[in-house]
From TrEMBL:
Presence of the UniProt keyword Cytoplasm in the record: yes
Purpose of the protein: Regulates ciliary localization of the BBSome complex. Together with the BBSome complex, controls SMO ciliary trafficking and contributes to the sonic hedgehog (SHH) pathway regulation. May play a role in neurite outgrowth. May have tumor suppressor function.
Domain of life the protein comes from: Eukaryota
Signal sequence bounds: none
Subunit comment: Self-associates. Interacts with BBS9; the interaction mediates the association of LZTL1 with the BBsome complex and regulates BBSome ciliary trafficking.
GO cellular component: cytoplasm
Family: Belongs to the LZTFL1 family.
The organism of origin for this protein: Sander lucioperca (Pike-perch)
Protein name, entry field: Leucine zipper transcription factor-like protein 1
Lineage: Eukaryota, Metazoa, Chordata, Craniata, Vertebrata
Amino acid sequence: MAEFGFNEHHQNEVINYMRFARSKMVLRLKTIDSCFEELKDSRLVEETFTVDEVKEMLDGLQAVVRGEVEMELINTAHTNVLLLRQLFSQAEKFYLRLQSDISELENRELLEQVAEFEKTDFKTAKINQETNKPKLLAPLNEGGVAELLNKEIARLQEENDKLKSRLRTLESQAMSALDERTKAERALKDLQKVRGEQQLAAQSQELSSLEDTVAALREDYERSLSAKSASQKDLQENLISAKHELLRVQEQLSLAEKELDKKFQQTAAYRNMKEILTKKNEQIKEIRKRLQRYEPNE
């Protein structure tokens, strides 16, 4: 499955689903075969049949086979809906919104890749079976992309809370500094009258240094906040990439379903039955001709 870009975990999930789909297909084919066997055992007991009788048997067989195929197709569609439900539920835990491209479900190149995988890798793939399998999809492990992103978002949120707390502290310090400045300005006015211009210059220099400190603290906070915003943007891009990987799983599963349905329409059992019925009709016509030759009055 290297062509599809799956990791080992997702490849095993696809193989498990394909095995499930194959078992359902084999079971349904056995049911259809039993329909033909039942017809042979219950109806094909005479040597000759009329056209109406053959038509009646074929109509009955057609209704039964059609019902079986229709039931299987409906069940397959419903099964796929349950599979999508598991994928969507898991994605929503990480705030992802999945979407599908229906046009890709008939991509011949991808369908051929799935068929080739079923012939080769699917037969030899080794899967680590667990003793107790969960009924729903298991959450991604700690090494998964979404889990790492989720942890990183939580870490950034925590750092953001710390920065907010630090900002409140800085604002409190700034307010205290402003109060001190106001007090200092009032003190300067008093000192101007007593100590003169030299002491006033020293006090002004101290106030300027305090303002520079406040400005430096605010600039440091703004730089930290800008760096965190850039990191969150990178995380958003990684989330989108993880979303695309999940979409590929859905596409490949739908493509595999269509390929299996098409193979059923091309089975040799159906063509053989048609040839047998044609030969039977020809034999019946020949027998009737012989009867009319020896018993023309009848």
